[in-house]
């Protein structure tokens, strides 16, 4: 129980360069407060987030994983986020059916002007993952 | 058109070989890709240009050494290419359809000759059966087809597990379909082929046999068995187990990947230097958990492979056959594959014009995702 109150989830965020990363930047320059639990990795497009990156983070013990991209229709490369949406739907279904917790994986469309929405997303994910507790993969050595 | 191929002296195989010979002699195709009996008595797929050698062809031998879809891809993927007649079982034909969609094969100059399949034995099991029983050479496949026809609820012992739960024993999407799942194979073989080809070869139309009724019962029995197996493996993964625990004995030989007809990458990411980590990286990971499984990333390997091929998995079961640890790879992948295929309403191997789900999208789907 003590562990739960002191548990700080670690969230890995894969953010697209054009929208969500810039949105995160705006959250910072706007001095918005959000939990310091997120580690951001910038990619050129959410469509560049290969499921293997998400799986590696998950199996290495990341408590939450966020994929951030432009709103549907706004992709800098026209269709990267649409394709990523399908990939994430497939990935989560496969994880669920393979006996893993698919709810550690999040996807959010956040534009460059939505600093507030980015801060809210991180707050929401942090609270939810805190409630869920640590990713069991963190302590499983035989996987 | 549907035609009837007469069988002389009860030698079904010879009649079939005669039909294949015609395809070469009449110049319908340049080569045939067909299971052949080697001088040592084993079965292997081979390309054949000499009609005389087709006396060694044996598409009836109930063994599946490799999924020949991969081979059909090799001889068709780019121009110039020969016109190939590919004699394939249903699971091979369906895998070929997926490879065409993945741009690893082409049907443009190919004549797909689909043989109805009653199932097959693994290579080792088949070897044992052939050397031990001393029965006439046709006995094995005859028993298998008889069982599929008359007692589909109880498949013969030793049949590949993937075949026991295969609910798609036929592939009707081929130009030529050899309809073996019916009675009277000692007198005639029925097959369907394009009208022009039938006329060219001098055939006249014939009536359908009892295949439809036999198929309905066979598919029902196979589906029931499949559902039982799926339920059992799902109960494990929905309970306290997961893919990591079920595959805990994996030795990372990558056989499942090598034999998978859908896994077409020339260099798999798991054979690339990406997974050759720095020595101190292993040290850091070990210290995090106190112990660290080696070789590393075993669960990652299986989950990544699932993400790459589960949507296209045709359930041929080559992975299970190739697993030295005898893990239920095929059953796990099929059970998971069926669910994710359902999400995208996608049936692998069905329609060559349909795009695989992950290379396409619709703007107005899953609109709640990401909001």
Features:
heterodimer, A: Rossmann fold, 42% helix, B: 371 residues, 2 domains, seven-stranded mixed β-sheet, 14 helices
Characterization of the model:
- The complex is a heterodimer of chains A (143) and B (371).
- Chain A has 143 residues and is an alpha/beta fold.
- Chain A has a single domain (2-134), classed as Rossmann fold (3-Layer(aba) Sandwich), CATH 3.40.50.
- Chain A contains 5 helices and 4 strands.
- Chain A has helices at 2-6, 20-29, 51-59, 80-97, 115-132; strands spanning 11-16, 38-43, 64-69, 105-109.
- A 4-stranded parallel beta sheet of chain A has the order 2-1-3-4, sandwiched between helices.
- In chain A, β3 (64-69), α4 (80-97) and β4 form a beta-alpha-beta unit.
- In chain A, α2 (20-29) crosses α5.
- Chain A is globular and about 40 Å long.
- Chain B is an alpha/beta fold and 371 residues long.
- Chain B has 2 domains: 2-225, no CATH class; 228-359, no CATH class.
- Chain B contains 14 helices and 7 strands.
- A 7-stranded mixed beta sheet of chain B has the order 1-7-6-5-4-2-3.
- The longest helix of chain B has 28 residues, at 211-238.
- Chain B is globular, with a radius of gyration of 22 Å.
- The relative contact order of chain B is 0.13.
- The A-B interface holds A 51-52, 55-56, 59-61, 69, 71-73, 79, 81-83, 85-91, 93-95, 97-100, 107-109, 138-143 and B 234, 236-238, 241-245, 248, 269, 285, 288-293, 297-300, 303-304, 306-307, 310-311, 332, 335-336, 339-340, 343-344, 357-363, 365-367, 369-371.
